[in-house]
Amino acid sequence: MDRDDDFRAFVEGSWARLVRTALLLGSRPGDAEDLAQSALLRAYLAWDRVSRAGNVDAYVYRILVNTRATALRRRSALELPSEIPDIPTAGDPTAQVDLSDLLIHALRRLTPKHRAVLVLRYYADLSDVQVAEVLGVPVGTVKSRLHRAQNQLLEDRSLLEALERGAS
User: Fold this and answer.
1) What CATH number is attached to the domain comprising 18?
2) Residue 22 · residue 38 · CB < 8 Å
3) How many Å apart are CA 113 and CA 126, to the nearest integer?
4) Measuring CA to CA, which residue among 39, 45, 44, 41 is closest to residue 62?
5) Contact 59, 53 (CB under 8 A)
6) DSSP state, 90?
7) Domain extent for 17
8) Whether residues 65 and 116 fall in one domain
9) Among 42, 44, 45, 46, which Cα is nearest to 70's?
10) pLDDT tens track of the chain, all 168 residues?
């Protein structure tokens, strides 16, 4: 398989996952696709090095996280965050969709660093060591951020109430 075919196969297998990861990291839907595309462009430009990495997925997640951090730093200082918008649900809402919506809102209330470790550890299913490598922090930092993020989610009343309603 040549370089372009190898990269194409990677993109086909990882596109949706990268976009969902960008969404969970706090990007809006259109911005999440742009972010995934930018990360993949950077990965393509360095594909020889990326494809030789021990874990290609972890390498590309690191590119994704770094690309998002760079974009956030470049944002205008005049731009102020607004309230978390309601995310409309399409079709017949179910308990699963409601819970998913609440979880997305709960994730958005976390700091970007806490959100990143949760998403990379539990959604992307990277190990603590891989998350540390992606974020460029020690493993102990990953563990403490995970602990703090999990505690914040456990203290989120709306999420807890939804979970209790679902259990009854």
Assistant:
1) 1.10.1740.10
2) no
3) 16
4) 39
5) yes
6) P
7) 1-76
8) no
9) 42
10) 688 899 999 999 999 999 999 988 888 888 889 999 999 999 999 999 998 988 899 899 999 998 888 877 766 544 544 444 444 444 445 666 777 778 888 888 899 999 999 999 988 888 999 999 989 999 999 999 999 998 888 888 877 776 666 554
Q: How far apart are CA 111 and CA 162, in angstroms?
A: 22
CA 91: distance to chain centroid? Answer: 25
Torsion-angle region of 26 (φ positive above 0: left; ψ -120 to 50: alpha; else: beta):
left
Q: How many helices (H) and strands (E) does the chain have?
A: 9, 0
Whether 57 is in a domain gets the answer yes
Q: Give me the pLDDT at residue 77, please.
A: 42
Contacts of 134 (CB under 8 A, 6+ apart): 58, 61, 62, 65, 120, 126
* DSSP secondary structure letters along 11-63: HHHHHHHHHHHHHHTT--HHHHHHHHHHHHHHHHHTHHHHHHSS-HHHHHHHH
Sequence length of the chain is 168
Residues 70 and 28 in one domain: yes
pLDDT at 85: 42
